[in-house]
UniProtKB/TrEMBL annotation:
Pfam families: Clp_N. It comes from Streptomyces dysideae. The lineage of its organism: Bacteria, Bacillati, Actinomycetota, Actinomycetes, Kitasatosporales. Residues 2-190 form the Clp R domain. Keywords: Repeat. This is Peptidase.
Amino acid sequence: MFERFTKDARAVVTGAVEHAEGAGAQTVDAEHLLHALLDREASRASFALAVLGVGGREEAVRSVRRALDDARRRAGLSQAEAEALAGLGIDVSEIVARVEETHGVGAMSGDRKDKGWWSGRRSFSRGAKEVLEKSLRIAVAHRDRHIGDEHILLALTARPGVPAEVLADHGVTYEALTRVLYGGGEAKAG
């Protein structure tokens, strides 16, 4: 499948690996793909993000990154999941605070503090693999010959989870991206 990726899409995958390494994460997650997309300039995804008010605006990009970092500190729980637990009387922020008080900030993220611990290649988490597979299905549904970074961005918004929630909170949804990238008509992605 990787041979069908454009130069921009390959740069996103490579950038996601670099973000995972920088965070000391054991695997490359969907959140790392979004971080890498936010780094891109002069690509279809960066154009779409700019049109929707995120790309190119440092303040908005920082806000997205902060929201991703907050979710990682909550062990990857989305805000909706944290709210659902709150409905059951479980205060996720209190749990995070207690764990971080004992073990340090970011202890629930699963990231290693000794960032030099890993010398091999990082594997992709199930979520990251699903995003990449979904990007292929989206490209095919739109009759695009290659998978671009815009398809990865669309896949992140089409799959439930932290990246989709964070992007939606910033006005970036699958529907809005589809309008920006393809105009009014939508092809259905499987």
